[in-house]
Amino acid sequence: MEMLIISGLSGAGKSRVAAALEDLDFYCVDNMPAALMPLFAELCAATRGRYERVALVSDIRGREGFDQLFSALDELTSRGFDYKILYVDATVETVVKRYKETRRRHPLDDAGGLESAVLREIEMLAPVRRRADFIIDTTGMTLGRLQRTLFRLFGADREQKLRVSVMSFGYKYGIPIEADLVFDVRFLPNPFYVPELREKSGTDPDVRDYVFNSDVSRQFLLRLEEMLDFLLPNYEEEGKLTVTVCLGCTGGHHRSVAVAEALGEYLTSMGHEVECIHRDIGKS
Question: What was the pLDDT predicted at 156?
Answer without folding.
Answer: 67
